[in-house]
From TrEMBL:
Source organism superkingdom: Bacteria
Domain DUF1731 span(s) in chain numbering: 235-281
InterPro entries: DUF1731, Epimerase_deHydtase, NAD(P)-bd_dom_sf, SDR39U1
Family: Belongs to the NAD(P)-dependent epimerase/dehydratase family. SDR39U1 subfamily.
Organism listed in the record: Parabacteroides chartae
Protein name, as recorded: TIGR01777 family protein
Coiled coil: none
PANTHER family in the cross-refs: EPIMERASE FAMILY PROTEIN SDR39U1 (PTHR11092:SF0), SUGAR NUCLEOTIDE EPIMERASE RELATED (PTHR11092)
NCBIfam families reported in the protein's UniProt record: yfcH
Leader peptide range in chain numbering: none
Residue stretches making up the NAD-dependent epimerase/dehydratase domain: 3-201
Length: 283
């Protein structure tokens, strides 16, 4: 199969490309320059079977007003251009998987795919706008919106940053530690993508999170245990407010999210337990 991917050069995109290549599929990277050209985008999409929309500027930089616009535009405009191209095609790919994030949900409660509850901050607003663009896809193309938790892997994403302080004996709990930290191991994310491709009846939202509900304190204590390090410190939330500005919410707040779709389908997680996921990353 030919699988077109926006954001193919990123942490998750590279992992997906490697996986599809190993499985004898042909990944096609939709670079920024291809996305920017309406004709180029349509001609690159011709003959593809699936499109996966991952593109988005990193949220880990300081959220200045200008950078917040980039976080938003890199997702919303890319998705709009992609959906416009797909809607114009006579023979479009049969499946479009468009990414979003668990930041769409509020910090209180436990949320499955059918939860109508929404958060209030900037990231919720980004996710809602991102998903809204994807939903403009014409009927006839199967649309799946994957809401990722924090993706844990060796080669990128948040895990190397989250685990580094533990290596240097300064791992800590952030704030009161009760903020949710939904996560998924990158190997499970890649397998779940293949699962979505295979299960043609699945449409709509699918939360990509492991079955183990986790909060920040549990994450820190598990990391400390696996890495044989102490977890003595608790860093007050205001320190992150000073350091990160509005972006402090990335670490001082978080959601509790489950994936009713993956759990009830019998999807087998290779890393259902955080301890094993962290062990695989530090090994
Ligand atoms: P990376 O930061 O590693 O990669 C981002 C990708 O998006 C790169 O290929 C980059 O291309 C591309 N990109 C950035 N800005 C633009 C733009 N303006 N136009 C087109 N492409 C752009 O991210 P990840 O691989 O970790 O994440 C992929 C997606 O998954 C992101 O949208 C992210 O928000 C979402 N997600 C990730 C989570 C995680 O834990 N990693 C959790 C929840 C959601 P280039 O090389 O040209 O810069």
């Amino acid at each position: 199969m030919k699988i077109a991917i926006t954001g193919a050069s990123g942490f998750i995109g590279k992992k997906l490309c490697d996986f599809f290549l190993r499985d004898n599929h042909t990944p096609v990277a939709l670079s920024r320059s291809i996305i920017a050209s309406p004709e180029g985008l349509i001609s690159t999409l011709e003959g593809t079977d699936i499109v996966i929309n991952l593109a988005g500027a990193s949220i880990s930089k300081r959220w200045t007003t200008k950078y917040k616009q980039e976080i938003m535009d890199s997702r919303v405009l890319t998705t709009r251009r992609l959906v416009t191209a797909l809607n114009q095609m006579a023979a479009p790919p049969s499946l479009c998987i468009s990414v979003s994030a668990v930041g769409i949900y509020p910090d209180s409660g436990v949320h499955g795919e059918s939860s109508p509850m929404r958060g209030t901050g900037f990231l919720t607003h980004v996710c809602e706008s991102w998903e809204q663009e994807a939903r403009m896809l014409k009927p006839g193309i199967r649309l799946v919106i994957t809401r990722f938790g924090v993706v844990l892997g060796k080669e990128g994403g948040a895990a190397p940053l989250m685990l580094a302080p533990f290596r240097f004996f300064v791992g800590s709990i952030i704030g009161n530690g009760r903020q949710g930290l939904p996560w998924i191991h990158i190997d499970d994310l890649v397998n779940a993508m293949q699962w979505l491709i295979d299960h043609k009846q699945v449409t709509g939202v699918v939360n990509f999170v492991s079955p183990q509900l986790t909060n920040n304190e549990q994450f820190s204590k598990t990391a400390a245990k696996v890495m044989h390090r102490p977890c003595w410190f608790r860093i007050p939330a205001f320190v992150f407010k000073i350091m990160l500005g509005e972006g402090h919410t990335m670490v001082t707040s978080g959601q509790q999210v489950v994936s009713d779709v993956l759990f009830h389908s019998g999807f087998k997680f290779r890393y259902p337990k955080l301890e094993d996921a962290i062990r695989s990353i530090i090994s």
